[in-house]
Amino acid sequence: MIDIAKQVTAVQRVVSQHSIDGGERVSVLLRRNYAAPIEDVWSALAEPGRLRRWFLPITGELREGGRFQLEGNAGGEIIRCEAPRLLKMTFGAETSVVELRLSEVDGATGFEMMHSVPVQLAGNGAGALFVGPGWDVNLLALELFLRGEVFANPVGWQNSPEVQRFSRQTIKAWAAAAEDSGTADGDQIAQGIATATAQFTPDLDPSTA
Asked: What's the whole-model pTM score?
């Protein structure tokens, strides 16, 4: 059983809108710690045989300059790869960029992930609700995997009622992060919540907390 409250509060979530190379982008940032050595966390992220056990099967050349494809999901190009601390890649589109940074923190591993897209694609900071809750589920799966849990079907687990209840809480957290960022108004955030609820919690009764 997932301690939903504990896992939701384990992650720091930040939404921002900023200029990179003259273009406006919207980013989501997730930070948390994992009680595992940095080499173990890197291995779970970068080794296909382990990645498929908690996330998705992956094919391609997993090196700087190589291209990859996740089964039934996004593909992209690896821009930078500096084991065991930095992995930067395009994700689904050339303008969609994901960057992972690992650090050693008191015997554990600090994990930081940023996903940024052009503001034209996100619309505004409420666009964080379209991707943030999904990344939260993946970070939770990695936490459980590093603790020794076995996923017979990672995709099926992601769609389970328990994970949907977890997602309901992360949607609230991302809505708060979007509001704190000042990059979206109330109507935009409400629309983002509605979209995220339909996407990440399709089987839950929306009238219940």
From this structure: 0.96
The residue written with tokens 């930070």 in the block is 31
Long-range contacts of 103-111 (CB under 8 A, 24+ apart): 103/38, 104/38, 105/33, 108/33, 108/34, 108/35, 108/36, 109/33, 109/34, 109/36, 109/37, 109/38, 109/40, 109/41, 110/31, 110/33, 111/30, 111/31, 111/32, 111/33, 111/34, 111/41, 111/139
Reported as a single tens digit per residue, the pLDDT across 9-46 is: 999 999 999 887 778 999 999 999 999 999 999 999 99
3-state DSSP call for residue 109? strand
Helix ranges (DSSP H) in 48-160: 48-54, 119-122, 128-146, 154-158
Report whether pLDDT(209) > 70.
no
Decide if pLDDT at 126 tops 90.
yes
